Amino acid sequence: MPLPKAELHLHIEGTLEPELAFALAVRNGVTLPYADTDALREAYRFQDLQSFLDLYYGLMTVLRTEADFEELADAYLARAAAQGVRHAEIFFDPQAHTARGVDIGTVVEGLGRALDRARERHGVTTRLILCFLRDQSAESALETLEAAEPYLHRITGVGLDSAEVGHPPRKFAAVYEAAAALGLRRVAHAGEEGPADYVREALDVLGVERVDHGLRCVEDADLVARLVRDRVPLTLCPLSNVRLRAVDVLEEHPLPRMMDAGLLCTVNSDDPAYFGGYVEDNFAAVRQALGLGEERLRELARNSFEAAFLDDDEALRAA
Ligand code: ES4
Ligand code: ZN
């Protein structure tokens, strides 16, 4: 039995499996530049974050209707539940859809239908986190937040994702301030490919309470000391780091050293359809490659509930 856990770093568009992508392509009359699912899987050899993102934004053009987003989230939640996930905080990228003429309401309502059912169907509680694409303009992020206002009852927080280097957190200071004023929680990807300074800036300028990846904090001892002291959670994604070459091989992932240093680490799947596995696959991989013992694995699972946007009593029930 997999350990009960919360998944805190999961892009719903990154759960689009090749089989569903082809089924939706047929349903929506979209032509994909791959002959079949095998040819598509063959293309999953990424050099870095950007080469992944290029394929990822291309494939998600098959997502068009509320039913598509509902089916996508249904499939993820069933898989996650089977891997011990009791609570999932799910990222979505509205700008990747609105840029193609798909309304943000279509996305949120479709995902919402699946999320509403997940509790009884799978025993999984959920939150939605709206991510801004950091390689788009700050104005576009503000417009996205405005477009989301009718749906804020369904949205717990905001995040920041896509191509990191050259798009520092401070670019989004205004939209994060506006999000905070609306009562939204704040997280951001930082220190995946970008430097440790981006992690510090996400804390200081954006006011994030959790850092997505945060891997490169290990290059800055003062930053590590601060993250430990303030118990700032990091949502690490080990298989993603290998596939996108943030680390050379899993055996060299800094996770054990980060835990030894006292960092509040969690293990998550990021884009599981693309990176070789869902969250328990990530747990199994780090157990194998890094020799993490049962106590360390239990610590990771416990950390995931501490780091989740749950009330204390909800966290206890979920664990
Ligand atoms: C992402 Cl792995 C990763 N990094 C940044 N942005 C993303 N969006 C989807 N997956
Ligand atoms: Zn991510």
Automatic annotation (TrEMBL):
InterPro entries xref list: A_deaminase_dom, ADE, Ado/ade_deaminase, Metal_Hydrolase
EC number: 3.5.4.2
Any GO MF annotation of the entry: zinc ion binding
Keyword set includes Manganese: no
Single biological process term from Gene Ontology: hypoxanthine salvage
Biological classification of the source: Bacteria, Bacillati, Actinomycetota, Actinomycetes, Kitasatosporales
Sequence positions that bind substrate: 271
Residues in Adenosine deaminase domain copies: 4-316
Keywords carried by this UniProt record: Hydrolase, Metal-binding, Nucleotide metabolism, Zinc
UniProt family annotation: Belongs to the metallo-dependent hydrolases superfamily. Adenosine and AMP deaminases family. Adenine deaminase type 2 subfamily.
Record-annotated site: Important for catalytic activity: 213
EC primary class: hydrolase
Annotated protein name in UniProt: Adenine deaminase
Active site per database record: 192
Cofactor stoichiometry and binding remark: Binds 1 zinc ion per subunit.
Co-factor(s): Zn(2+)
Binding site for Zn(2+): 9, 11, 189, 270
